[in-house]
Amino acid sequence: MGASLTVIAIVIIYLGIMILIGYISSKKINDNEDFLVAGRKMGPWLLAGSLAATEVGGGSSLGVVEKAYGEWGFSAVWYVITMAIAFIVLAFLAPMLREAAVKTVPEYFRRRYGEANSLVTSIIMLLPMVGLTAVQFIASATILSVMTGWSYTMSVIIVTVVVTLYSVMGGMYSVVYTDVVQWIFIIVGMALIIPFTLQAGGGFEQVTANIPEAKWSLVDGAGWGTIIALVVMYIASFTVGQEAVQRYYSAKDGKAAKNASYITSIVYVLFAFIPAVIGLFMYGMVENGQIDGAMLMERGAQYALPVLAMEVLPDVVTGILFAALISATMSSASSNLLAAGSIFTNDIYHQYINKNAADGKLLKMVRYTMYVVAAFSLLTAIWNVSDIITLLMFSFTLRAGGAFIPYVLGHIWEKASPAGSLASLFLGSLAVYLGEKEFISFFGLDPIYLALIVSGISFYVFSRLFTEQYEHRDL
């Protein structure tokens, strides 16, 4: 199944524009700080567009359609609405995060708690980056392979090359500017599919005739347990996630960071319903026999949205939608690449390998690291095409379990100590791992709850027992 030349041409032009933005952005890079945090000059609207595009990736586009088509039904909206709730909470933390004037989360741990904490945080933050980036490559390649008929492997390689090129050229500048363009494509492209689907299916009543009433429930499919767990996971993960907080570090001031959070949460609530409704319409049209479900049975529900587009949309709209879907996944991938490059260079290379590295040398190392992470993510994407949201949730939870408590409380509790932070990092992350692998169970709840409780208790107890502060603390 392949698309028309019109569709392929639109997507190729779009990919070319992304690389062009990267090239133009590269002209703004004068030093390492420009590359990592865009010279700390970003206003609220640019930041909001970037935050929105960064966290709406494969899970929030293809993944939500897949979940709505599958067992979650309409309650799949919560996968994105819970992100909006997290950003409302982050709005209160954002000015505080910006005031720290660091470039990375591990740099904060180094200044607040010392070298050992920084190294452990760097490792915890770096580990999920390959997985998170691979998830986005998988989603992008899924779209390209369905659209063009090219092999999945070739599609992954093309996506990897484009994302890596524009990210490496312009750093935070190109990531933010491409994010804003990508967010416009995501909103327009995915919204357009709804009226065309209804037209192709004979109207709302015809499309929804065979959708069971249970699938329209706003809660039942996902369940309150999952919804609450998502809120907790997002708050904990976004707060310490380098790809998210690097935006706050790039804000021109605390007010810009706070307003960007509010704008992002509003946009997420509006966006959440689009992929969920598409997934339900897809289900209805398959049940009605209007769309052949054979390809879904053969390849899995993650192909739901590309298949629907090929069936019901005119070529130009299909091209816009595919560009939008690739936007959603590429924006997240580019943020993860920049985050990985920032952490390795700023907190491992500069601290332990070459303490006297000149600014130009550091800039080169960020770019080299991004190439390496892209290569590992490419290999992971080729080998692993499992459920998009499951992969995302594990990576999010791993880093959130240990780092959230010492990161947030370190800003507001004077007596937080290096020993408390270290205990929290180790024991919280361990609790996540043991919970995910089902070695231990916490009343059948998501492992993030146990991890945060273990992390919080160990942070407080060890800070009280070992009160010595890091002597060079300087924020």
TrEMBL record:
<dbReference type="GO" id="GO:0046942">
    <property type="term" value="P:carboxylic acid transport"/>
</dbReference>
<feature type="transmembrane region" description="Helical">
    <location>
        <begin position="221"/>
        <end position="241"/>
    </location>
</feature>
<keyword id="KW-1133">Transmembrane helix</keyword>
<keyword id="KW-1003">Cell membrane</keyword>
<feature type="transmembrane region" description="Helical">
    <location>
        <begin position="365"/>
        <end position="383"/>
    </location>
</feature>
<feature type="transmembrane region" description="Helical">
    <location>
        <begin position="76"/>
        <end position="97"/>
    </location>
</feature>
<comment type="similarity">
    <text>Belongs to the sodium:solute symporter (SSF) (TC 2.A.21) family.</text>
</comment>
<keyword id="KW-0813">Transport</keyword>
<feature type="transmembrane region" description="Helical">
    <location>
        <begin position="180"/>
        <end position="201"/>
    </location>
</feature>
<dbReference type="InterPro" id="IPR050277">
    <property type="entry name" value="Sodium:Solute_Symporter"/>
</dbReference>
<feature type="transmembrane region" description="Helical">
    <location>
        <begin position="118"/>
        <end position="144"/>
    </location>
</feature>
<feature type="transmembrane region" description="Helical">
    <location>
        <begin position="150"/>
        <end position="168"/>
    </location>
</feature>
<feature type="transmembrane region" description="Helical">
    <location>
        <begin position="303"/>
        <end position="326"/>
    </location>
</feature>
<protein>
    <submittedName>
        <fullName>Sodium-solute symporter, putative</fullName>
    </submittedName>
</protein>
<dbReference type="GO" id="GO:0005886">
    <property type="term" value="C:plasma membrane"/>
</dbReference>
<dbReference type="InterPro" id="IPR001734">
    <property type="entry name" value="Na/solute_symporter"/>
</dbReference>
<feature type="transmembrane region" description="Helical">
    <location>
        <begin position="447"/>
        <end position="466"/>
    </location>
</feature>
<feature type="transmembrane region" description="Helical">
    <location>
        <begin position="262"/>
        <end position="283"/>
    </location>
</feature>
<dbReference type="InterPro" id="IPR018212">
    <property type="entry name" value="Na/solute_symporter_CS"/>
</dbReference>
<dbReference type="Pfam" id="PF00474">
    <property type="entry name" value="SSF"/>
</dbReference>
<dbReference type="GO" id="GO:0022857">
    <property type="term" value="F:transmembrane transporter activity"/>
</dbReference>
<keyword id="KW-0472">Membrane</keyword>
<dbReference type="InterPro" id="IPR038377">
    <property type="entry name" value="Na/Glc_symporter_sf"/>
</dbReference>
<feature type="transmembrane region" description="Helical">
    <location>
        <begin position="6"/>
        <end position="24"/>
    </location>
</feature>
<feature type="transmembrane region" description="Helical">
    <location>
        <begin position="45"/>
        <end position="64"/>
    </location>
</feature>
<keyword id="KW-0812">Transmembrane</keyword>
